[in-house]
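Q: I'm writing up a methods section and want to include an example of the input and output format. Could you take the sequence below and give the corresponding predicted structure tokens, formatted cleanly so I can copy it straight into the document?
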Amino acid sequence: MKHLGTKKLETKRLILRPFKIADAEAMFNNWTSDDEVTEYLSWPTHASVEVTKSILKDWINQYESANFYQWAITLKEFGDEPIGSISIVGQRDSIKMVHVGYCIGKKWWRMGIMSEALAALIKFFFEEVGVNRIESEYDPSNPNSGKVMEKCGMKYEGTLRQVIPTPRYGLSDSCRYAILASDYHS
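A: Here is the clean output for your methods example:
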């Protein structure tokens, strides 16, 4: 893999870009403080914008690493305000694999925005970084997340039982999806 870091990516409707500290309030207001958005995620709802700022500071410090990938999702018609995030939450260089995680404010659910963002990452990682496998997972109680993966050509590989630690429900199951370079290029 040829790691390139969190480069700005653009689609028809979106700009995916690195976060900046000025994004904290929008991030908090648009998704990190929303119990519905974080319901099935492995991190807790943020209690204050200070929690969001602290996480952003950590991410911003990591942008110097070529193998750190954390994008703010912005909708061109909405300006530069972030409405969600998409990132690499795990990777194994030895098998050229990245694991994608994502979330978006509920105001933008069911608009195809996350599918568009994920498709942009799939293209970037196969065509520019040179990965062989892109995978993701979701809690089966949140099937709309799986629909995003399916729309992007990812294939269901199975369900692992009680492997996702969630603040709200304890250990949750994980539906696993992946797409291989050979799938993408065929």
